[in-house]
């Protein structure tokens, strides 16, 4: 049980670290474009384009969800409308926890 718990905490730590790394990269994206990407696919492509292939591959997995404000992704790519915030979520089920909280990362 202890070993399993240690593995679960290591997985959680990895998810949190990756989500925080994406947050830093999205800060750079926002500085350049004055908006956040409208979709998860755009985030993955941006990470790939800037040479963060490992992070891109990790973030592309189903473990990570990405939503924006405004919540309709097409609005974020329309002239005059910018995604002003986002939410990255990693559900606790990804590290086999039923009592922990999800990982939530925002700008």
What this model shows, in words?
This protein has 107 residues and is α+β, with helices and mostly antiparallel strands. The protein contains three helices and three strands; from the N terminus they run αααβββ. Strands 1-2-3 form a three-stranded antiparallel β-sheet, with helices on one face. α2 runs antiparallel to α3. The model has no long low-confidence stretch (mean pLDDT 89).
Question: Can you tag this structure with a few keywords?
Answer:
107 residues, 3 helices, alpha+beta
Number of strands: 3
Q: For the largest sheet, list the strands in their spatial order.
A: 1-2-3
**Rg on CA atoms, Å:** 15 Å
Number of helical stretches of at least 4 residues: 3
Overall pLDDT level: 89
Helical/strand content category? alpha+beta
Could you give the order of the helices and strands? HHHEEE
Bulk shape: globular
Q: Detail the poorly predicted runs.
A: none
Q: Strand content of the residues, in percent?
A: 5-15%
How many angstroms does the end-to-end distance come to?
Answer: 36 Å
Major sheet summary line: 3 strands, antiparallel
Helix percent band: 40-55%
Set down the secondary structure blueprint.
Layout (H helix, E strand, L loop, with lengths): L1 H32 L6 H10 L3 H7 L4 E6 L15 E6 L12 E3 L2
Antiparallel strand pairs: 1-2, 2-3
Quickly describe the structure.
46% of the residues lie in helices and 14% in strands. The protein contains 3 helices and 3 strands; from the N terminus they run αααβββ. The protein has a 3-stranded antiparallel β-sheet, with helices on one face.
């Amino acid at each position: 049980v202890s070993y399993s718990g240690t593995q679960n905490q290591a997985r959680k730590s990895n998810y949190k670290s990756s989500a925080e790394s994406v947050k830093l990269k999205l800060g750079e994206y926002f500085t350049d474009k004055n908006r956040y990407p409208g979709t998860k696919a755009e985030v993955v492509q941006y990470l790939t384009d800037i040479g963060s292939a490992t992070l891109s591959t990790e973030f592309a997995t189903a473990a990570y969800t990405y939503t924006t404000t405004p919540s309709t992704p097409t609005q974020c790519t329309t002239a005059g409308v910018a995604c002003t915030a986002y939410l990255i979520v990693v559900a606790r089920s990804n590290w086999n926890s039923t009592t922990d909280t999800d990982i939530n990362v925002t700008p």
